[in-house]
Amino acid sequence: RPAHGEQRIAVIGLGRFGSSLAAELMARKWDVVGLDENERRVQRHRDLLTHTAVADATDDEVLRQLGVHDFSSAVVAIGSDVEASILVTSNLLEAGVPNVWAKAISRQHGMILERLGAHHVVLPEHEMGERVAHLVTGRMLDFIEFDDDYALVKTIAPRVATGVPLGETGVRATYGVTVVGIKRSGQDFTYATAETVVQPGDVIIVTGRTQAVESFAELE
Ligand code: ATP
Ligand code: ATP
Ligand code: CA
């Protein structure tokens, strides 16, 4: 990761998604250049971001003048105007920005962005919907799924994982999951080892194949 000062990112489109993203990046000490064709939106971000500009990002010249080719990353946070999203993404890739992130509003839109060569495509509504489904149906408190069918889950410890040292519970062999962390009420998180004894009510962090982790988190 580049040193502070080189963490310069362009956020194109300051709607709800772009705005929240830009604010979080500022909180993480990145230099954020926000661009939107809507003057009022830009006005609202003027004092919050490193730099802002009112401009149509589909215009090649606009991106060039902003110096995006020197940025380490850019995020295309335009959603509903799919044509603009595709054009801007293509221009950023053409300019050689090494990390181009693009938001898609549909799977088809996402597929086009991927074929264009966008380095990261996010589908906020779809991804959040899937995540919430996991949280709604199970006892999970939090859920992260990685690309390769691998998940990390925060859940209340099922009875099978409690009472005896983890190494003796057989949860890895039986359920295919590994307990990596444990949080007892009023205490900090600690790493789990084979000797750790989880108690009923403890919150645990579990990893493994998505299906295995889901089944394990369903247990009483
Ligand atoms: P969100 O859900 O994040 O609010 P959205 O999916 O509704 O956004 P849009 O409203 O299409 O997405 O776009 C978000 C922002 O991008 C808007 O503020 C819009 O003005 C801006 N935008 C759209 N097209 C361009 C463009 N060509 N150049 C610069 N900004 C643009
Ligand atoms: P491994 O080769 O799996 O690391 P090990 O030789 O380190 O096992 P122990 O650490 O004593 O052996 O663990 C005994 C059994 O308990 C093993 O089947 C191991 O996979 C399992 N186990 C150890 N730690 C955990 C854990 N945190 N969560 C679930 N199962 C565990
Ligand atoms: Ca929207």
TrEMBL record:
Indicate the secretion signal residues.
none
InterPro entries given for it?
NAD(P)-bd_dom_sf, RCK_C, RCK_C_sf, RCK_N, Trk_Ktr_HKT_K-transport
Q: What is this protein called?
A: TrkA family potassium uptake protein
Q: Which organism is it from?
A: Streptomyces alkaliterrae
GO MF annotation terms: monoatomic cation transmembrane transporter activity
The processes (GO biological process) annotated in the record are:
potassium ion transport
**RCK N-terminal domain sequence ranges:** 6-123
* Domain (RCK C-terminal): residue spans on this chain: 138-220
Enumerate the transmembrane spans: none
> PANTHER family given for it?
KTR SYSTEM POTASSIUM UPTAKE PROTEIN C, POTASSIUM CHANNEL PROTEIN 2-RELATED-RELATED
